[in-house]
């Protein structure tokens, strides 16, 4: 994230950077529906709508919390480097149209809405680990508590220019390796350790019901991620945003190929699920590091992340934790890999003059990255587990076993994703289509 300062109202607005950031904000918003499709295709038919809703509800809850006080907690004046607070940001009531944020001269409103989209997608990422078994009401309450207690403080640590401790330490996280992906991945692990496994885990087949939906979701994520990453420099006057854009594409391609090669060697096939998962692993890994590494470095980051994340998704079977859609294996591991590799591949020619070990800079930056990674991982894991435990012991986190087996969509939403009955299918459709087919045939003969 670009170094940011609040500027006086008379400072000249940059129309170019403002327009660019509004577009990037829209791209990041698109990532949450993209994530919903990605996750929705990976679950069984009976859980499709619930999976979509677990992402979509974040758009509602987090938006309101962010405007009321979340932006102030994350980006207000630092209180000891732990949390922020600026009363003018509460409800955004004290923010005027002419007040600008950062050296790139964009309105505070634009920066606030861009960061809002990050706050929305982060808890949505957690939902993939909990597929098939969590009450929707409990999930909504968990999101509400989690963003306030976990996400807002961590975002302040990492990105607040007014004194977040990780920011001041020099931890490099360009667009969310720690604040978004490690944060969400660690939270997912904490929650699933509390709520337990799905009924039939390791026994029943739990294959994706729609790989086309998975690929559609991955494509939307890849597309939106250019706004997620390149936009995090808040402009492109110095070319750093362009570097991040290129590195996003390069690392994602490398990770997808590396995952597929590993998959072919290990399992004997190139799968569409592997291609989609590998692409997401590359996007995750380049998120913290892309502004600090060269395109060649981005290839290395992506390839390493592709292989390590592919290996990591199998750990749930070895250690017995039920991470339904591999949030831990992809987002936690990918975020750790991308964050730590800054300490090796930082070129000194991107967002800062920091050089990693392979560029003669020693291990100083690596240890800073370790501090940021370790703090976010530990805090999110522990607090998320405590929140899940408290909710489970009060309102209950899980649906009943009968509802889980029958299908959480019907139990929680009174709907199903697909309706194969009635006029839309079967004999009725065949009969209706017959005259059309006959007419077309006669035209061809003529």
UniProtKB/TrEMBL annotation:
Q: Name one Pfam family in it.
A: Ammonium_transp
- Alphabetized UniProt keyword annotations: Ammonia transport, Cell membrane, Membrane, Transmembrane, Transmembrane helix, Transport
| UniProt topology in membrane | Multi-pass membrane protein
CC per GO annotation: plasma membrane
Q: Where are the transmembrane segments?
A: 20-39, 51-75, 106-126, 138-159, 179-199, 211-228, 240-262, 269-286, 292-315, 327-346, 366-391
* Listed InterPro entries: Ammonium/urea_transptr, Ammonium_transpt, Ammonium_transpt_CS, NH4_transpt_AmtB-like_dom
Which Gene3D superfamilies is this protein grouped with? Ammonium transporter AmtB like domains (1.10.3430.10)
Which family is this protein grouped under?
A: Belongs to the ammonia transporter channel (TC 1.A.11.2) family.
PANTHER family named in the record? AMMONIUM TRANSPORTER MEP2
Protein name (Swiss-Prot/TrEMBL): Ammonium transporter
């Amino acid at each position: 994230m670009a170094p940011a300062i609040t500027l006086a109202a008379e400072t000249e607005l940059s129309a170019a950077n403002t327009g660019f950031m509004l577009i990037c904000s829209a791209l990041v918003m698109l990532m949450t529906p993209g994530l919903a499709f990605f996750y929705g295709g990976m679950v069984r038919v009976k859980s499709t709508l619930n999976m979509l809703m677990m992402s979509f509800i974040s758009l509602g809850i987090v938006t309101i919390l962010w405007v009321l006080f979340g932006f102030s907690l994350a980006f207000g004046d630092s209180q000891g480097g732990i949390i922020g607070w600026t009363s003018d940001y509460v409800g955004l009531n004290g923010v005027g149209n002419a007040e600008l944020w950062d050296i790139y001269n964009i309105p505070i409103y634009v920066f606030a809405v861009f960061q809002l989209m990050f706050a929305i997608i982060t808890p949505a990422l957690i939902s993939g680990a909990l597929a098939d078994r969590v009450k929707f009401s409990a999930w909504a309450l968990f999101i509400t508590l989690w963003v306030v207690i976990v996400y807002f403080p961590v975002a302040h640590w990492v990105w607040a220019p007014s004194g977040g401790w990780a920011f001041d330490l020099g931890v490099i996280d360009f667009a969310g390796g720690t604040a978004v992906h490690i944060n969400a991945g660690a939270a997912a692990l904490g929650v699933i350790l509390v709520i337990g496994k799905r009924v039939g885990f390791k026994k029943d087949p739990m294959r994706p019901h729609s790989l086309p939906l998975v690929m559609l979701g991955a494509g939307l994520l890849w597309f939106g991620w250019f706004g997620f990453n390149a936009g995090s420099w808040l402009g492109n006057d110095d070319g750093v945003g362009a570097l991040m854009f290129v590195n996003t594409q390069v690392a994602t391609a490398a990770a997808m190929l590396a995952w597929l090669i590993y998959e072919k060697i290990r399992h004997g096939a190139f799968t569409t699920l592997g291609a989609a998962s590998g692409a997401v692993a590359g996007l995750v890994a380049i998120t913290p590091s892309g502004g600090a590494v060269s395109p060649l470095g981005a290839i290395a980051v992506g390839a390493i992340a592709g292989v390590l994340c592919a290996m990591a998704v199998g750990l749930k079977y070895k250690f017995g934790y039920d991470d339904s859609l591999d949030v831990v294996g992809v987002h936690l591991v990918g975020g750790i890999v991308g964050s730590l590799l800054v300490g090796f591949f930082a070129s000194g020619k991107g967002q800062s003059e920091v050089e990693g070990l392979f560029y003669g800079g020693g291990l100083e930056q690596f240890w800073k990255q370790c501090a940021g990674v370790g703090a976010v991982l530990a805090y999110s894991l522990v607090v998320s587990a405590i929140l899940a435990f408290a909710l489970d012991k009060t309102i209950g986190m899980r649906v009943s076993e009968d509802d889980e087996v029958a299908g959480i969509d019907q139990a929680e939403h009174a709907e199903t994703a697909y309706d194969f009955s009635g006029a839309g299918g079967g004999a009725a459709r065949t009969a209706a289509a017959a005259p059309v087919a006959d007419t077309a045939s006669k035209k061809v003969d003529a």
